[in-house]
């Protein structure tokens, strides 16, 4: 009989090796990391707050300025654009997407609610299937 090398591999190492080989999974992983970074770090530096209502900035399209903001720009002031536009009450959509509550399912709400549940399900499932063989 020939000599065969037996590769020792545990469940997590094998799973990680397969994850790294899968290009779509790695791209998805990077997207999830970017969402987490943007939802936790960017709101600290973003010029508009979650609850701030800007009068006259109702229903703005993405990257559009209100009349008051355009007047401030003409006066030489620097004004940050509304990247995703504003809603009917003049609130910036981008910060609302990053914060993720109560109307959008993205940003911090996902990080607080969905991701921990996914990790718990993964942990429980791996324990169950390890015992089953």
What would you say about this model in short?
The chain is mostly helical.
Description:
- By secondary structure, the chain is mainly alpha-helical.
- The protein folds into 2 domains: 11-40 and 100-133, no CATH class; 46-97, no CATH class.
- The chain has helices at 11-21, 23-40, 42-45, 67-74, 93-99, 108-132.
- The protein starts with 10 loop residues before the first helix and ends with a helix.
- The mean pLDDT is 83.
Topology, number of strands:
0
Instruction: Output the number of helix runs.
Output: 6
Please state the CA-atom Rg, rounded to the nearest Å: 23 Å
Q: What is the helical fraction, as a range of percent?
A: 40-55%
Gross morphology: elongated
Mean pLDDT: 83
% residues in beta strands: under 5%
Low-confidence stretches: none
Structural class: mainly alpha
How would you sum up the major sheet? none
Question: Between the first and last Cα atoms, what is the distance in angstroms?
Answer: 28 Å
Could you spell the SSE succession in H and E letters? HHHHHH
């Amino acid at each position: 009989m020939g000599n065969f090398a037996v590769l020792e591999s545990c469940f997590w190492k094998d799973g990680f090796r397969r994850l790294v080989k899968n290009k779509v999974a790695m791209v998805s992983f990077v997207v999830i990391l970017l969402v987490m970074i943007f939802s936790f770090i960017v709101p600290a530096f973003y010029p508009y707050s979650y609850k701030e209502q800007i009068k006259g900035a109702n229903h703005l399209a993405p990257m559009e300025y209100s009349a008051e903001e355009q007047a401030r720009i003409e006066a030489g002031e620097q004004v940050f654009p509304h990247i995703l536009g504003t809603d009917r009450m003049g609130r910036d959509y981008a910060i609302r997407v990053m914060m993720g509550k109560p109307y959008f399912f993205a940003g911090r709400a996902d990080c607080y609610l969905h991701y921990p549940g996914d990790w718990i399900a993964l942990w429980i499932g791996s324990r169950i299937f390890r015992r089953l063989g």
